[in-house]
Specification:
The complex is a heterodimer of chains A (656) and B (406). With 656 residues, chain A is an alpha+beta fold. Chain A contains 32 helices and ten strands. Chain B has 15 helices and 18 strands. Chain B has helices at residues 12-21, 34-39, 58-65, 81-92, 96-105, 107-116, 130-143, 174-180, 231-234, 237-251, 284-292, 296-302, 310-316, 347-350, 389-399, and strands at residues 5-8, 25-29, 44-46, 72-75, 124-127, 155-158, 169-171, 188-192, 197-206, 209-220, 224-227, 256-264, 270-276, 327-333, 338-340, 355-358, 367-369, 380-386. The N and C termini of chain B lie far apart (51 Å). The chains are: A alpha+beta (656), B alpha+beta (406). Chain A binds chain B through residues 3-4, 7, 11, 15, 22-26, 29, 32-34, 36-37, 39-40, 43, 86-90, 147, 149, and chain B through 12-13, 15-16, 19, 40, 42, 342-345, 347, 350-351, 353, 355-362, 380, 383.
């Protein structure tokens, strides 16, 4: 990479000189050539810095001549999001323009168009508008449109800007962002930690200022929830604990526990604290520090030896997040299921396949370079077991696998751990499909080549194998007269999937066929007013049409329907798992899934029943009595759903 | 030194190079370009170059150019070669300058001249209709001593005067004649297929003398080439230089640059394909500028000036003992047919150390790409640079098939 970087710098110099020497006749062409090198350079921090050093020369040479970026005072922050996603060379023009504005805000470069204050305000507005992009929490629309490398480039440039800009103007929005991100309790917390790290690196947050309190609480959660912890690194904190009075120790434990419970984030100090509490056998304080509820307390009492061993042998600073996994798992009483405990014991003793070790240390779940692969896997497994709804797919198009991991974590934790053990030992996974055994090692197609490692350790190990098997099943079930999911879902996810299956698209008519029937069946299966108030037992795999904020068809997506309930305002809502990391989306027609404040549990998304129904294309249901109940669904409701469907994804289809 | 150059046609890089030469010039081109020229202070004479009439002819043009003091005309486009020839005939007071220009504009005439002067060419005829072509194939088959049921010998049909591969039809069988040839193609030239490696040269000539010679290696005609040619072709340089000198003599070329295409067969025999005397396609002169570190476009213009001094010529070309640092090559990107919505730059390109730059632009919203004639307009060019010609070749071969537009 260094060679490429060095060459890139030389070539940038050369292209810059060519641009300076070009007359207006060939400016545009020379500018494009320079941008193609800038595109390459902006993929590394040093490259971005190198471009920024020359930004005054680049601008003066006329890189923006005859483009929309030429006149700084005419730039519109709202338009930035669009061009950032447009791809080369527009994205590169946009990023260079942001670097120019940064230079103006710093007074390094003067532009008659705008003042340095205006430049700063411009960048703040752009950053707040594009937080999702900058921190990599993409919705489906963005994930389809931007490659991981393009995204990486955008993020590098914005981080460069953020490090040089005071975030004063965006504190409030950042606090809100952190609130909504942590409310979803993701297993993978890398991006949340990135935002917080950025905050601590770039701004002095004065505690006396109430505006800063919210932000500081997140900073403390990852850097040390108590004053003593915050001021010390984890090793110093260990010595500090040794000299603490019983009373003070109790306070430390309680504060740590509260932070853990309210944010779902863990600092390195927490690992030292619980190890210290175990050593001194401070059972009560340990319970406090792990935020254990009644069930959790009973659980730890019953399995104390195993829990202590787990912590002492497998918990490290570099994956402190495991503490939250353990806490949640204890509160779910999972160790009292012998199959789960046995499987975990087995996991702790196993020897990893070398390929799996290599994959594990690539997870972005830790920044450590010397991390022990098995410890990461154990920690990641605890997190997944404790937070079934926090499973995400990263930038990978593997919603089905994420959905499966979540389902098994919730309803078949031992099965999940055994899958992990089998993959971790042999780099292979086998599943049955219609009497045949499918082995992942025999399948060549898959996405292992361009795998995004911004995922939790368990997913990093399991998803490539699950994805291969899922694709192979889909291949074998294709060319039949109905949606292949009908056969694949029960085989892939397991016997939890109900036997009824309905698809809006008819593989015989090649059209959206009898849509009202399809919708009526959906209401009769899940809506409490029409299904005799029958609760959903297990997560239901649902195929969704994903639409953009302009309600245009984008593609297909897999989610799980978890439960249906009335919210505080009496609206019947569907609560579902969107494995796409980030439940907050905009599907057009004012259909905007909520993740917080409408009765959602951590990790759930929700929508009013009809709105959700309008995006469904396939689902499983329990067939008993469905036909009778379908008759009771009012026409008016069906029409409402149909209208939403027809005016969005429906435009792409023939209706019969 | 020339009093004033008339640049016939339109090329921004050439105009920029002449501006840098600090020589007086005027651009002669279609009225469509006038507003751009005005806006950028380019001396400009609008002229209907596609019309030949009482109001539009060389005498009239010469008259109009007097105001600029023009004494040298330089053809930039294939279609302006005879205009420049006519003007230069007047300026040099030599009617045969025009006749020689016509050699470059009529492929049949060009072949005949080459044949007479002893250059190797294929078997060729002028054809007026499908029957002529069938007869040509029959005669070719007989000459090749073909037995019954053997495949027909291959032939190529080309319009007399068109740049590059516009209107080129590759005839492999009798059946192709009805399928591929359109009535409006006639009359045209037909020639037997020349086997071997195709490449081009750019020979800069002044005072009837070869001043600088570049050999360009084609990786895929019309898609990718690199400069200088790899060692295999460079080893044949004496042979090639000799052929070029014979071509210069045969055609009586005194001033300008010629761009002949040759075929080198396995027996190391050179066959003459065709020759042009305008700016070659494929950004070849831009590549030459980069490879030899000189301004090939300015040199192209300067070579047309009979009054250019030896000092001026020596200053513009690379020194005789110049050694290249790197090979430079390019791929022209043509989107595949059909709807395209997005430009995608593959990551591997940006990680490639030989990658120099590209100027690809995104398509308009869901642009539709239709069939193209000849090579049409490409959407952009990717440039590579490096020490190893084999690697350059591999890269060009790879990237000419990469779909940048999806």
């Amino acid at each position: 990479m260094n060679e490429v970087l060095e060459k890139g710098q030389k070539l940038l110099d050369k292209h810059l000189k060519a641009l300076e020497e070009a007359s207006s006749l060939t400016k545009k062409d020379k500018a494009l050539k320079l941008l193609s090198q800038a595109d390459r350079l902006m993929r590394s921090e040093k490259g971005v810095a190198y471009i920024y050093e020359q930004i005054d020369r680049i601008v003066a040479a006329g890189v923006f001549a005859d483009t929309a970026w030429e006149k700084t005072d005419q730039l519109v922050p709202k338009l930035v999001a669009g061009t950032l996603k447009a791809g080369a060379p527009l994205t590169d023009y946009e990023l260079l323009s942001e670097l120019k504005i940064l230079a103006i805000s710093k007074g390094v470069f003067s532009d008659s168009g705008i003042s340095s204050e205006e430049a700063e305000f411009f960048l703040e507005t752009v950053i707040v508008d594009n937080l999702d992009l900058i921190y990599g929490q993409l919705n489906e629309d963005q994930r389809i449109r931007i490659t991981p490398e393009e995204l990486g480039k955008i993020q590098l440039v914005f981080r460069f800007i953020l490090e040089r800009l005071s975030v004063e103007g965006i504190k409030k929005q950042l606090a809100e962002e952190l609130k909504l991100l942590t409310a979803q309790r993701p297993v993978f917390t890398g991006h949340i930690r990135d935002i917080i790290r950025l905050l601590s690196d770039s701004v002095k947050l004065d505690e006396s200022d109430t505006k800063n309190r919210a932000l500081l609480s997140y900073l403390y959660a990852v850097k040390g929830p108590t004053e003593a912890a915050f001021e010390r690194n984890a090793s110093e904190y260990k010595s500090f604990l040794e000299n603490l009075s019983e009373e003070d120790l109790g306070e430390e434990a309680e504060t740590f526990g509260k932070s853990l419970d309210s944010k779902g984030l863990v600092s390195e100090h927490h690992v030292e604290l619980i190890k210290f509490l175990i050593k001194g056998d401070h059972k009560k304080f340990l319970n406090l520090s792990l935020a254990l509820n009644k069930i959790g307390k009973a659980e730890i009492d019953a399995h104390r030896t195993f829990v202590y061993q787990l912590i002492n042998e497998h918990f490290e600073h570099y994956y402190s997040q495991a503490v939250y996994g353990l806490s949640s798992m204890l509160n779910r009483s999972l160790l009292s299921r012998p199959a789960v405990k046995n499987a975990l014991e087995h996991l702790c003793q196993m020897k990893l396949h070398p390929t799996i070790s290599k994959r594990l240390v690539k997870t972005a779940a830790t920044k450590a370079t010397n991390a022990d692969a098995l410890k990461l896997l154990i920690g990641g497994t605890l997190n997944t077991l404790g937070q079934p709804l926090g499973v995400g797919q990263g930038m990978n198009p593997t919603c089905q696998s994420a959905r499966g991991i979540s389902l098994w974590s919730d309803h078949a934790p031992a099965k999940l751990i055994n899958m992990i053990i089998s993959v971790a030992a042999s780099n292979n996974l086998e599943m049955r499909f219609e009497g045949d055994i499918i082995a992942s090692k025999d399948i060549l197609d898959g996405l292992t080549q361009e795998f995004d490692y911004k995922m939790d350790p368990l997913s990093v190990v399991l998803v490539p194998h699950l994805d291969k098997i899922y694709n192979e099943m889909m291949k074998r079930a294709s060319m039949r007269t109905d949606d292949p999911h009908k056969w694949v879902n029960p085989a892939f996810y397991g016997h939890w999937i109900p036997t009824g299956f309905s698809s809006a698209y008819s593989y015989i008519m090649l059209s959206i066929h009898q849509y009202d029937n399809f919708t009526a069946c959906f209401f009769a299966a899940f809506h409490p007013d029409y299904n005799e108030n029958r609760k959903v037992a297990y997560p239901i795999p649902i195929g969704l049409f994903i639409t953009s904020s302009k309600a245009e068809m984008l593609g297909f997506h897999a989610v799980s329907l978890l439960r249906v309930a009335k919210d505080e305002e009496g609206v019947v809502r569907i609560y579902f798992l969107n494995p796409n990391n980030e439940g907050r989306q905009d599907w057009g027609q004012e259909i905007i899934p909520s993740v917080h404040g409408k009765g959602e549990e951590a990790g759930e998304s929700s929508l009013p029943f009809e709105e959700f129904a309008s995006r469904v294309y396939a689902y499983h249901y329990i067939p008993t009595g469905i036909e009778e109940r379908m008759k009771k669904v009012p026409k008016k409701l069906l029409e409402k759903v149909k209208k939403l469907a027809e005016e969005s994804w429906g435009k792409k289809y023939i209706w019969t | 030194m020339a009093n004033c150059f008339a640049l016939m046609g339109w090329s921004l890089p050439v105009i920029e190079s002449v501006q840098k030469l600090n020589k007086p010039y005027v651009v002669v081109s279609f009225p469509d370009f006038e507003s751009y020229a005005k806006e950028h202070d380019i001396p400009f004479l609008p002229y209907q170059l596609d019309e030949w009439s009482d109001r539009s002819n060389a005498r009239d043009l010469e008259e109009k150019l007097k105001a600029f003091g023009v004494d040298v005309a330089v053809p930039l486009f294939e279609e302006t070669v005879e205009w420049a020839g006519a003007l230069n005939s007047i300026y040099r007071d030599d009617p045969r300058v025009l006749n020689r220009a016509m050699l470059f504009r009529d492929k049949a005439m060009m072949k005949r001249k080459a044949l007479i002067e002893g250059l190797r060419v294929g078997y060729f005829e002028i054809v007026y209709n499908n029957e002529d072509v069938h007869r040509f194939i029959d005669r070719l088959n007989v000459a090749q001593l073909q037995l019954p049921n053997e495949e027909d010998a291959w032939a190529h049909m080309k319009p007399f005067s068109a740049a590059g591969t516009v209107g080129h039809r590759f005839i492999k069988t009798h059946a192709d004649v009805e399928e591929k040839v359109k009535p409006e193609d006639y009359p045209c030239l037909i020639e037997s297929h020349l086997a071997g490696k195709e490449f081009s040269c750019e020979a800069f000539i002044h005072g009837g003398e070869l001043r600088f010679l570049n050999i360009t290696e084609y990786v895929k005609l019309g898609y990718s080439n690199f400069i200088p040619a790899g060692p295999e072709l460079q080893a044949k340089r004496p042979l090639i230089e000799d052929a070029i000198n014979r071509l210069i003599k045969a055609f009586g070329i005194e001033y300008g640059m010629i761009h002949p295409e040759w075929f080198l067969n396995e027996k190391d025999e050179l066959f003459f394909g065709e020759v042009a005397c305008r700016i070659p396609g494929g950004h070849i002169l831009e590549l030459a500028s980069k490879a030899y570190n000189f301004d090939a476009l300015a040199a192209f213009v300067l070579c047309h000036d009979p009054n250019a001094t030896e000092q001026e010529l020596a200053a513009i070309f690379p020194p005789k003992d110049f050694e290249i640092d790197d090979y430079v090559g390019n791929v022209m990107v043509f989107p595949k047919r059909g709807n395209i919505s997005k430009l995608e730059i593959p990551e591997e390109l940006l990680e490639e150390s030989y990658f120099e730059d590209h100027n690809l632009q995104p398509p308009y919203a869901s642009q539709k790409v239709s069939d193209r004639e000849g090579f049409g307009n490409h959407f952009g060019t990717i440039n590579f640079r490096g020490k190893n010609p084999e690697k350059i070749k591999t890269l060009l071969e790879h990237y000419q098939d990469v779909p940048f537009y999806v």
